[in-house]
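Tip: read the tokens left to right.
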């Protein structure tokens, strides 16, 4: 019964996220405040359904659903949605919010296409508190990287449009977008470094006897870390605000998604679900 409820909540959340995305598209054409209110209300309802879906699946499995690919992406999408509300609170731009919603819908589409976890039993290597530290931190960091990616896309679009174009005028200033990208990536980078890499290495040593095994997912995670390290180096040390850091922001998020799928194609020690 609980599995049925968690699945229903997933589809309800998915439908509401899609409804919010459609509302933002309509808002682009009409700019009516009622449409904006509808989009925000749909996002609130979607987030509640999303949270209930995770809660019921956690109750069913007796652990947070982060051991399988669909569960992990479902949690990552939840963190991205949480970041959406933070952005709405502090960044007064519905276009930024709209771009974030599109990313959430993309993540939910990925969840819908992945096989669902079929067993609540954890293999011995996963029966550790490191599971919650390592995987939850990784999912949260990807949610923050998603926000940074969305802001970078808007930054690049604004840079490429004619100064007097209608869409260019709707997109918030490059300074705001640059700051939002930077802060999202700094927070995500810290979580990714401490949770995905450092805590992951400690857990690997405890489970497999080695801090680093050059497993495909470990290698891909290192590439993600290097991309975001390059972004931060350019962003902090170069005063001129070129497009290169924002291309790195987008590349980092794409690399994070490819890291997620690496176990499907390359196998390795991380092939749990």
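Filled-in amino acids:
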């Amino acid at each position: 019964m609980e599995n049925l409820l968690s699945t229903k909540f997933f589809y309800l959340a998915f439908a509401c996220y899609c409804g919010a995305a459609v509302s933002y598209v309509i808002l682009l054409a009409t700019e009516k405040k009622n449409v904006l209110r509808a989009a925000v209300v749909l996002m609130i309802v979607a987030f509640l359904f999303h949270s209930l879906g995770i809660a019921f699946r956690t109750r069913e499995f007796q652990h947070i659903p982060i051991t399988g690919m669909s569960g992990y992406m479902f949690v990552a999408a939840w963190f991205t949605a949480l970041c959406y509300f933070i952005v709405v609170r502090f960044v007064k731009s519905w276009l930024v919010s709209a771009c974030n919603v599109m990313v959430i819908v993309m993540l939910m589409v990925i969840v819908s296409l992945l096989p669902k976890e079929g067993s609540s039993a954890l293999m011995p290597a996963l029966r550790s508190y490191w599971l919650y530290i390592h995987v939850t931190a990784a999912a949260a960091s990807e949610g923050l990287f998603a926000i940074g990616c969305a802001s970078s896309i808007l930054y690049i679009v604004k840079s490429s449009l004619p100064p007097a174009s209608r869409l260019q005028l709707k997109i918030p200033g490059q300074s705001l977008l640059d700051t939002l990208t930077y802060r999202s990536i700094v927070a995500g980078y810290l979580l990714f470094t401490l949770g995905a890499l450092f805590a992951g290495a400690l857990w690997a040593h405890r489970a497999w006897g080695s801090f680093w095994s050059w497993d495909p997912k470990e290698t891909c995670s290192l590439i993600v870390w290097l991309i975001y390290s390059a972004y931060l180096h350019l962003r902090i040390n170069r005063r001129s605000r070129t497009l290169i850091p924002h291309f790195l922001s987008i590349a980092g998020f794409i690399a994070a998604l490819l890291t997620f799928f690496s176990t499907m194609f390359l196998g390795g020690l991380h092939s749990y679900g």
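The mean pLDDT is 82. DSSP finds nine helices and no strands in the chain.
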